[in-house]
């Protein structure tokens, strides 16, 4: 919207360009002349603006295109046109003030564009496949406030401030919304594919010592030996109890490592074609509330392998972010409040009696949960909230699930290491020193 300021400034400043040697009887004459320029419907400054704008080839106005290539993919907006600038008018009284100490007149001019629309042609190439179409948008009652100053000593006119008082965004067509979501999703996928969250979690764990009671490691071996002799009734209850003890220790370790709450990465994303949003100061809470949502499955196979399949659950994770959105010259700020419910994982701990070694055979996210978001702050238009919700969900949901996967997987791997250390201390007592596992 910067060109709006330039256009209006050129129109207004030319009418106020008093010659320095032009003499007035006093300031009252200047004020009277200003009033005439501002309010006279036939001769004033704002008179016939529609014709002036049209004659100056400003309606319609060509607007810049957008062309971005990323990893072989391309997003292009072209043939942009802005219609409706000729609907510019003053929508309420101007205000003239006089600052006696500085001998300066200040003029506040409220202007409005009744209806502004824009059109773009778009081209998206993804994996060499082109997608073409059109983008249209509309703004109603777009309002701005200009403040000019006139120095009565030098007769110099300056634009002091300009601000948008009403963004006027009314709607974008459905094709545009679909396109925008597609673009955001594509960029998010690229960013997420490059992120290494295992390294992020490892760095958090680096200086922490995962200490579980010695009997937790010993009981795993006891259960394995019992399974080798044959699974009996009541084994499931015993294994459930063992798993609950293990998860309790993992939860304590997550808190001790400073990851409940856990800081989330800062993010930023373009809202094509006129916006950008930023997410900062993000925190994920209740990461230590890992639990079990069903019975643990115990098995002993013919190839002498003992397995414990644990169904893991994070019932309710909370997240917060501060956000800032810029649409043209307008900024919105506030907070994002999020909740992820029913995030489920499956872990299988294995013990091979052929090698006397334990392993984390499998670790999967079986259900990514449901992410709901709430935006607080001065978000004035529904389309912006919807665009933000879609973009933020697409960005955050995979990030959080990958963080949670590594958050649980690494402690389980350390449990396996402790069990193997214990076995080695029994089999090779002279060469093995049992110690807590450093991640």
Automatic annotation (TrEMBL):
Entry keyword Signal: yes
Signal peptide: 1-17
Keyword list, A-Z: Signal
Entries under Pfam families matching the protein: Grp7_allergen
Protein name (record): Uncharacterized protein
Organism: Brassicogethes aeneus (Rape pollen beetle)
């Amino acid at each position: 919207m910067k060109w709006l300021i330039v256009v209006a400034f050129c129109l207004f400043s030319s009418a106020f360009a008093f010659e320095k040697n032009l003499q007035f009887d006093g300031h009252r004459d200047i004020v009277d002349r200003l009033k005439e320029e501002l309010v006279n419907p036939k001769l004033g400054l704002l008179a016939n603006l529609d014709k002036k704008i049209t004659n100056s080839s400003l309606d319609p106005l060509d607007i810049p295109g957008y062309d971005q290539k990323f990893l072989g993919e391309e997003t292009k907006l072209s043939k942009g046109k802005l219609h409706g600038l000729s609907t510019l008018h003053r929508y309420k009284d101007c205000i003239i003030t006089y600052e006696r100490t500085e001998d300066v007149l200040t003029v506040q001019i409220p202007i409005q564009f009744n209806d502004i629309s824009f059109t773009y042609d778009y081209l998206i190439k993804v994996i060499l496949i082109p997608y073409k179409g059109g983008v249209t948008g509309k703004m109603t009652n777009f309002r701005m406030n200009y403040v000019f100053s006139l120095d009565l000593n030098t007769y110099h006119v300056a634009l002091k401030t300009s601000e948008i008082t009403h963004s006027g965004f009314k709607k974008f067509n459905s094709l545009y919304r679909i396109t925008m979501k597609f673009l955001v999703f594509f960029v998010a996928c690229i960013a997420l594919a490059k992120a290494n969250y295992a390294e992020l979690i490892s760095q958090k764990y680096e200086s922490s010592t995962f200490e579980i009671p010695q009997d937790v490691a010993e009981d795993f071996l006891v259960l394995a030996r019992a399974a080798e002799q044959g699974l009996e009734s009541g084994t499931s209850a015993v294994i459930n109890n063992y798993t609950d003890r293990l998860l309790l220790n993992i939860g304590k370790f997550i808190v001790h490592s400073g990851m409940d709450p856990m800081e989330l990465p800062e993010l930023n994303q373009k809202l094509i074609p006129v916006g950008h949003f930023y997410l900062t100061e993000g925190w994920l809470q209740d990461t230590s509330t890992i639990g079990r949502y069903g019975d643990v499955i115990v098995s002993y196979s013919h190839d002498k392998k003992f397995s414990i399949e644990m169904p893991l659950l994070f019932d309710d994770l909370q997240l917060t972010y501060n956000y800032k959105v810029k649409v043209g010259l307008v900024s919105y700020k506030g907070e994002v409040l999020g909740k992820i419910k029913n995030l489920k994982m499956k872990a299988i701990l294995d013990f091979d009696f052929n090698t006397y070694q334990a392993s984390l055979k499998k670790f999967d996210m079986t259900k990514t949960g449901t992410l709901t978001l709430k935006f607080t702050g001065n978000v004035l238009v529904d389309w912006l909230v919807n665009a933000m919700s879609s973009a933020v969900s697409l960005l955050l949901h995979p990030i959080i699930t990958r963080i949670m996967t590594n958050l649980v997987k690494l402690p389980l791997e350390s449990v396996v290491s402790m069990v193997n250390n214990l076995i080695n201390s029994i089999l090779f007592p002279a060469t093995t020193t049992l110690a807590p596992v450093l991640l």
